[in-house]
Amino acid sequence: MERIEIYTSKKKSFLLLIISIVFVLIGVWLLLESNKLSNLKAINPIYVHILGFITSVLFFGIGVYISVKRLLKSELALTIDPIGLNINPKKSLTDFIKWEEILGFEEIKINSVKIVVIRVKNPESWLKKETNTIRKKLMQFNIYSYNSPFNISSSGLDINSNKLNEKLNSYFEKYKN
């Protein structure tokens, strides 16, 4: 078996772009129409401004940025090879997991989104290796919730959940020793 590289999906990025633009427009509309809305519903216009700003600029503006970036150039999101797998090959070296360190894979569903949880030996040791504070907090949450610091969702990838699970398990069975 050779190395498999899985990239972000352009089709899913385009869908994210459309949805984000719609919500940015709604947020801008809330900003522009806050005085009219506050007169109709007896809502303080400051709340409408804050809601419009948060939804349009902060939250969905980031979605527009990420989707445009991924549409222009698909990012390498996952590599699977005979040595192990790397969940975030462009951003983190601590996410390379050798097959010997993996206990197995478990699929869970959260709001109909399938997520593959990677069971590893000594999950806390991975937490100690992480230097990025935000990623460390996410890993702590994952360990607390799923007893593993790592999980993969195929929702943004150019592979469906069943094929991803199949690839991971076939490589694991072949190279775990």
Number of strands: 7
Report the C-alpha radius of gyration, rounded.
20 Å
Shape assignment: elongated
Q: What level of helicity do the residues show?
A: 40-55%
Read across the widest sheet, the strand sequence of neighbours is 1-2-3-4
* Structural class by secondary-structure content: alpha+beta
Poorly predicted sequence stretches spanning 5 or more consecutive residues:
none
Mean pLDDT comes to: 83
Structure characterization notes:
The chain has 177 residues and is α+β, with helices and mostly antiparallel strands. The protein has 2 domains: 4-72; 97-175, no CATH class. The protein has 6 helices and 7 strands. It has helices at residues 10-32, 34-41, 45-72, 123-129, 133-146, 161-175; strands spanning 4-7, 76-80, 84-86, 96-98, 102-110, 113-120, 150-153. A 4-stranded antiparallel sheet has the order 1-2-3-4. Strands 5-6-7 form a 3-stranded antiparallel sheet, sandwiched between helices. It is elongated, with a radius of gyration of 20 Å.
What's this entry about, in short?
With 177 residues, the protein is α+β, with helices and mostly antiparallel strands. It has helices at residues 10-32, 34-41, 45-72, 123-129, 133-146, 161-175; strands at residues 4-7, 76-80, 84-86, 96-98, 102-110, 113-120, 150-153.
Compile the SSE list and pairings.
Blueprint: E1 4-7, H1 10-32, H2 34-41, H3 45-72, E2 76-80, E3 84-86, E4 96-98, E5 102-110, E6 113-120, H4 123-129, H5 133-146, E7 150-153, H6 161-175
Antiparallel strand pairs: 1-2, 2-3, 3-4, 5-6, 6-7
Helix pairs in contact: 1-3, 2-3, 4-5
